[in-house]
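Hi C.,

You asked whether I'd gotten around to modeling the 171-residue construct. I have! Everything is below, sequence then structure, no commentary in between.
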Amino acid sequence: MDVNSYVQRLGREFAALAETGGDEARVLFERLAGSLEPAIRLTLLEALSDATDEISRELAPGSVELRLRGREPSFVVNQAAPAPAPAESAGHAPASEEDLSGTHEGPTARINFRLPEQLKVAIEADAAQEGRSVNAWLVRVSSAALRRPDRHQPPPVQGIVGSDRYRGWIG
């Protein structure tokens, strides 16, 4: 994405404003013009970054990243891998793809739950590392977990380590 045209357009707008202020305003603008460009560019990048965060929240579990190559930003869209629809189990109808993505329009729901402090700290750290809010991170992870095709399978049973003694009758 070329932000130069936006920076130049704002520069022209400021120059036009300075012209209406007379010679003093024009001279002041000429002195400040050199430092305005980096400030404008940084502000535009911050706005683009905020926009990618907002879009990522709507795309969960997918995301959009803003990358800077030289002085120009570019966008990378990470789409979630399509998962097969979960099978109906225990009389529960499977949730629709829209329900699981967290991107449907309409009201949101709020839940409160308790979790160990260490888990909370780990979630906050992962969310921060991804540049997401804890809420957006939880929505993304929950959506991805609900899309897993093996989510209704019981966890593997692990063998019991320990005693070599056996009880019973041999006939």
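If it helps when you're writing up: Residues 86-95 have pLDDT under 50 and may be disordered.

Thanks,
B.
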